[in-house]
Amino acid sequence: MANLKDIQQRIKSVGSLQKVTKAMKMVAAAKVKKAQEKMEISRPYSKNVQDLICRILPEISSSNVDLIEKREIKNKGLIVITSDRGFAGSFNSSVIRLAEKEIENFGKEKVQLFCLGKKSSEYFSNRKYKVKESFYDFWKDMNFSTASDIANVFINSFTSGEVDEVNVIYNRFKNLGSQDLMMEKVLPIDFTKDYNVKNYNYDYEPSRESTIQTLMPKHIKVQMWQQMLESYSSEEAARMIAMDNATENAKEIIKELKLEFNKARQAAITTEMLEIVGGAEALAD
């Protein structure tokens, strides 16, 4: 059995760790709230842009719009969104597992990766996957310009013919207790199921084609921004839950250590009493 001093030191160490995990939980909860506010602000704009695109697309020739051009898929682009830090449960590992499965199914040499977050960048770079671009250390000061710059990279890869399709894998925020692991097609854009066939008889200036050519890249950038916000909210929610679990585990460990401490102290007292009684009997003899 460990001595009393060792047990006291362990109780103190676990108590200090418990304070840290509790503080991290509170910080993550504050960040989740801010990210949720940004998501709610961006959703109406994203929806209205998509509705406008769906309204125009049936009225023009798809051959005039590069970003909806469907090709034979020989090379694929995969956007993998993770975090820069850990301590978030299975948040990163679930995304990486799905990405790895998709890469193996399509062919390692035919997939270019666009890694958002240090965790995915380090994982795939260390394993010699084809990492086209890596982006990290931007989450703290993330803004729409960041999402726009990232979107431009894979848009250029698609329009130049380097990849024939682009998908994104990320965690979509559902609620504080859970996230949905998603894989969505980004390029080519396909709104077929969302087409609104009603004739609105609108006039477009300068033209429908020009309007679509302007809206398409903007829509992709807004979607990228939305997905980054969803992922960031999911990350902080996962970290909040992980730190809450760690805090509760620390509480249980402290409880067990205190029980062990009391047992050790009682054993020490019993031993001392036996030594005193034994010494007294020896003197009496």
Automatic annotation (TrEMBL):
According to its record, how does it sit in the membrane? Peripheral membrane protein
Q: Where are the transmembrane segments?
A: none
GO MF, one term, reads: proton-transporting ATP synthase activity, rotational mechanism
Where it sits in the cell: the answer is:
Membrane
Task: Extract the signal peptide range.
Answer: none
Stored CDD domains: F1-ATPase_gamma
Gene Ontology cellular component annotations, sorted alphabetically = proton-transporting ATP synthase complex
Kindly report the protein's main subcellular placement as a broad class: membrane
| Family membership noted in the UniProt record | Belongs to the ATPase gamma chain family.
Annotated protein name in UniProt:
ATP synthase gamma chain
What is the organism field in this record? marine metagenome
